[in-house]
Design brief:
126 residues
């Protein structure tokens, strides 16, 4: 049984930064597609950014381009989401998801992922 565990969420002021972590146990992530998704109250879960595999292509939602960056540390078996210039509309529960077969073309689709973390709350407010 493998798991993904997110951490790093919290309360931050507009314009601030946070770095979320998605740590894996029971699998080596470097050949797995990893997606970051978020869900605000009353809204659908949406894709934020995804990476098809380590060294593979990445896709970003238009709303976060230039502000968010996905990265991997294979030695730590962890994927990060660096979030800069945060806005109140970025407030949501953030989830990471993993799948061994997903290509870049579809990695922003939540239905392709077989494993999800429990989520971490990000609140952007003054």
């Amino acid at each position: 049984q493998w798991q993904l565990v997110e951490s790093g969420g919290g309360l931050v002021q507009p314009g601030g930064s946070l770095r979320l972590s998605c740590a894996a146990s029971g699998r080596t992530l470097d050949n797995y597609a990893i997606g970051w998704f978020r869900q605000a109250p009353g809204k659908e879960r949406e894709g934020v950014v995804c990476s098809s595999k380590s060294g593979g292509g990445t896709n970003y939602a238009d709303s976060v381009k230039g502000r968010f960056t996905i990265s991997r540390d294979n030695a730590k078996n962890t994927v990060y989401l660096q979030m800069n210039s945060l806005k109140p509309e970025d407030t949501a529960v953030y989830y990471c998801a993993g799948d061994p077969h997903t290509a870049q073309a579809v990695c922003m689709l939540k239905n392709v992922y077989i494993k999800w973390g429990q989520g971490t709350q990000v609140t952007v407010s003054s």
